[in-house]
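YM 10:42: Acetyltransferase, GNAT family protein sequence, as discussed on the call
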Amino acid sequence: MFKMIRPATPEDAKACVPLIDIVFEEMEIPALMKLPKSQLYPVFEQTFLLEDYRYGWPQTFVHETDGQVDGILVGYPHDKEDHIDDVFQPLLPKVGLPESSELFPDTETYTGEWYVDTLAVAESAQGHGIGTELLKGVEPLLHKRGESLLSLNVDQANPRAEKLYTRVGYHKNGELMIGSHRYNHMIKEI
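YM 10:58: structure's back
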Protein backbone atom coordinates (compact mmCIF):
# COMPACT_ATOMS: atom_id res chain seq x y z
CA MET A 1 0.00 0.00 0.00
CA PHE A 2 1.49 3.33 -1.09
CA LYS A 3 0.43 6.50 0.75
CA MET A 4 1.45 10.09 0.23
CA ILE A 5 0.47 13.66 1.08
CA ARG A 6 0.99 16.30 -1.57
CA PRO A 7 -0.28 19.69 -2.70
CA ALA A 8 -3.36 19.37 -4.89
CA THR A 9 -3.31 20.06 -8.61
CA PRO A 10 -6.14 21.22 -10.88
CA GLU A 11 -6.45 17.62 -12.09
CA ASP A 12 -7.64 16.62 -8.58
CA ALA A 13 -10.96 18.47 -8.94
CA LYS A 14 -13.20 15.43 -9.50
CA ALA A 15 -11.60 13.54 -6.59
CA CYS A 16 -11.65 16.49 -4.16
CA VAL A 17 -15.13 17.86 -4.79
CA PRO A 18 -17.00 15.02 -3.00
CA LEU A 19 -14.75 15.57 0.02
CA ILE A 20 -15.34 19.33 -0.02
CA ASP A 21 -19.07 18.58 -0.25
CA ILE A 22 -18.87 16.87 3.14
CA VAL A 23 -18.33 20.35 4.63
CA PHE A 24 -21.21 21.89 2.70
CA GLU A 25 -23.51 19.09 3.85
CA GLU A 26 -22.52 19.77 7.48
CA MET A 27 -23.28 23.46 6.95
CA GLU A 28 -26.82 22.52 5.91
CA ILE A 29 -27.23 25.32 3.36
CA PRO A 30 -30.82 24.77 2.13
CA ALA A 31 -30.20 25.92 -1.45
CA LEU A 32 -27.24 23.56 -1.81
CA MET A 33 -29.07 20.66 -0.18
CA LYS A 34 -31.86 20.95 -2.77
CA LEU A 35 -29.54 20.55 -5.74
CA PRO A 36 -28.69 17.09 -7.05
CA LYS A 37 -24.97 16.24 -6.98
CA SER A 38 -25.02 16.06 -10.78
CA GLN A 39 -25.79 19.79 -10.83
CA LEU A 40 -23.76 20.84 -7.79
CA TYR A 41 -20.47 19.04 -8.46
CA PRO A 42 -19.69 20.69 -11.82
CA VAL A 43 -19.95 24.11 -10.11
CA PHE A 44 -17.72 22.93 -7.24
CA GLU A 45 -15.24 21.56 -9.80
CA GLN A 46 -15.20 24.97 -11.46
CA THR A 47 -14.53 26.69 -8.12
CA PHE A 48 -11.73 24.20 -7.31
CA LEU A 49 -9.92 25.60 -10.36
CA LEU A 50 -10.08 29.16 -8.95
CA GLU A 51 -6.62 29.78 -7.56
CA ASP A 52 -7.67 32.38 -4.98
CA TYR A 53 -10.77 30.60 -3.64
CA ARG A 54 -11.02 29.04 -0.17
CA TYR A 55 -11.54 25.59 -1.74
CA GLY A 56 -9.28 26.16 -4.76
CA TRP A 57 -6.52 23.70 -5.55
CA PRO A 58 -3.67 25.93 -4.26
CA GLN A 59 -5.20 25.89 -0.75
CA THR A 60 -5.64 22.09 -0.79
CA PHE A 61 -3.44 19.20 0.24
CA VAL A 62 -4.47 15.66 -0.66
CA HIS A 63 -3.86 12.28 0.92
CA GLU A 64 -3.52 9.47 -1.60
CA THR A 65 -3.61 5.75 -1.02
CA ASP A 66 -2.50 3.70 -4.02
CA GLY A 67 -3.10 6.67 -6.32
CA GLN A 68 -6.63 7.44 -5.06
CA VAL A 69 -7.41 10.68 -3.21
CA ASP A 70 -9.04 9.67 0.08
CA GLY A 71 -8.56 12.77 2.21
CA ILE A 72 -8.03 16.53 1.96
CA LEU A 73 -6.81 19.33 4.16
CA VAL A 74 -7.67 22.85 3.03
CA GLY A 75 -6.25 25.99 4.58
CA TYR A 76 -4.83 29.44 4.08
CA PRO A 77 -2.97 32.22 5.92
CA HIS A 78 -4.97 34.70 7.98
CA ASP A 79 -4.10 37.60 5.70
CA LYS A 80 -6.12 36.00 2.87
CA GLU A 81 -9.30 35.49 4.93
CA ASP A 82 -11.04 38.78 4.09
CA HIS A 83 -11.08 38.01 0.35
CA ILE A 84 -10.75 34.20 0.13
CA ASP A 85 -14.34 33.81 -1.11
CA ASP A 86 -14.60 36.81 -3.44
CA VAL A 87 -14.03 34.83 -6.66
CA PHE A 88 -16.91 32.47 -5.79
CA GLN A 89 -19.53 35.24 -5.56
CA PRO A 90 -20.34 35.34 -9.30
CA LEU A 91 -20.97 31.55 -9.25
CA LEU A 92 -23.47 31.58 -6.38
CA PRO A 93 -26.51 31.89 -8.70
CA LYS A 94 -25.45 28.57 -10.29
CA VAL A 95 -26.11 26.89 -6.93
CA GLY A 96 -29.37 28.71 -6.27
CA LEU A 97 -28.07 31.54 -4.10
CA PRO A 98 -28.09 35.30 -4.78
CA GLU A 99 -24.68 36.67 -5.77
CA SER A 100 -24.83 38.86 -2.66
CA SER A 101 -24.87 35.79 -0.38
CA GLU A 102 -22.03 35.21 2.03
CA LEU A 103 -21.42 31.55 2.85
CA PHE A 104 -18.71 32.29 5.42
CA PRO A 105 -19.42 35.69 7.05
CA ASP A 106 -17.64 34.97 10.36
CA THR A 107 -13.98 35.59 11.14
CA GLU A 108 -12.32 32.23 11.77
CA THR A 109 -8.61 33.10 12.05
CA TYR A 110 -6.27 35.43 13.91
CA THR A 111 -3.20 37.38 12.80
CA GLY A 112 -0.13 35.26 12.12
CA GLU A 113 -1.97 31.96 11.76
CA TRP A 114 -2.17 29.50 8.89
CA TYR A 115 -5.72 28.27 9.24
CA VAL A 116 -6.80 24.66 8.75
CA ASP A 117 -10.22 25.39 7.30
CA THR A 118 -11.22 21.86 6.30
CA LEU A 119 -10.15 18.33 7.08
CA ALA A 120 -12.21 15.68 5.27
CA VAL A 121 -11.73 11.97 4.73
CA ALA A 122 -13.72 9.78 2.35
CA GLU A 123 -16.30 7.74 4.23
CA SER A 124 -14.74 4.51 2.96
CA ALA A 125 -11.35 5.53 4.37
CA GLN A 126 -12.41 6.85 7.78
CA GLY A 127 -10.97 5.24 10.89
CA HIS A 128 -7.59 4.49 9.29
CA GLY A 129 -5.61 7.48 10.59
CA ILE A 130 -5.79 9.56 7.41
CA GLY A 131 -6.91 12.70 9.28
CA THR A 132 -3.93 12.35 11.61
CA GLU A 133 -1.59 11.73 8.68
CA LEU A 134 -2.85 14.86 6.93
CA LEU A 135 -2.53 17.05 10.02
CA LYS A 136 1.02 15.87 10.68
CA GLY A 137 2.04 15.57 7.04
CA VAL A 138 1.30 19.17 6.05
CA GLU A 139 3.43 20.59 8.85
CA PRO A 140 6.82 20.22 7.11
CA LEU A 141 5.32 21.44 3.84
CA LEU A 142 3.95 24.56 5.54
CA HIS A 143 7.12 25.10 7.56
CA LYS A 144 9.06 25.22 4.26
CA ARG A 145 6.67 27.99 3.18
CA GLY A 146 7.59 29.98 6.29
CA GLU A 147 4.52 29.18 8.39
CA SER A 148 5.09 28.75 12.12
CA LEU A 149 1.62 28.84 13.71
CA LEU A 150 -1.29 26.64 12.66
CA SER A 151 -4.87 27.05 13.84
CA LEU A 152 -8.23 25.40 13.49
CA ASN A 153 -11.70 25.58 14.99
CA VAL A 154 -13.55 22.61 16.40
CA ASP A 155 -17.25 22.58 17.18
CA GLN A 156 -17.73 22.20 20.94
CA ALA A 157 -20.34 19.55 20.12
CA ASN A 158 -17.60 17.40 18.53
CA PRO A 159 -15.32 16.18 21.36
CA ARG A 160 -14.04 13.30 19.22
CA ALA A 161 -12.50 15.73 16.71
CA GLU A 162 -11.09 17.87 19.51
CA LYS A 163 -9.43 14.76 20.96
CA LEU A 164 -7.74 14.12 17.59
CA TYR A 165 -6.47 17.70 17.39
CA THR A 166 -5.17 17.57 20.96
CA ARG A 167 -3.43 14.27 20.27
CA VAL A 168 -1.48 15.82 17.35
CA GLY A 169 -0.42 18.84 19.44
CA TYR A 170 -3.09 21.52 19.11
CA HIS A 171 -4.29 23.30 22.24
CA LYS A 172 -7.26 25.54 22.92
CA ASN A 173 -6.53 29.25 23.09
CA GLY A 174 -10.04 30.71 22.81
CA GLU A 175 -13.63 30.34 21.69
CA LEU A 176 -15.67 31.91 18.91
CA MET A 177 -19.03 31.70 17.22
CA ILE A 178 -19.21 30.52 13.62
CA GLY A 179 -22.76 30.58 12.36
CA SER A 180 -24.92 29.30 15.18
CA HIS A 181 -22.27 27.05 16.74
CA ARG A 182 -19.68 27.73 19.43
CA TYR A 183 -16.17 26.58 18.51
CA ASN A 184 -12.93 26.09 20.37
CA HIS A 185 -10.10 27.87 18.59
CA MET A 186 -6.97 25.72 18.73
CA ILE A 187 -3.37 26.46 17.76
CA LYS A 188 -0.11 24.59 17.23
CA GLU A 189 3.38 25.98 16.75
CA ILE A 190 5.50 24.24 14.13
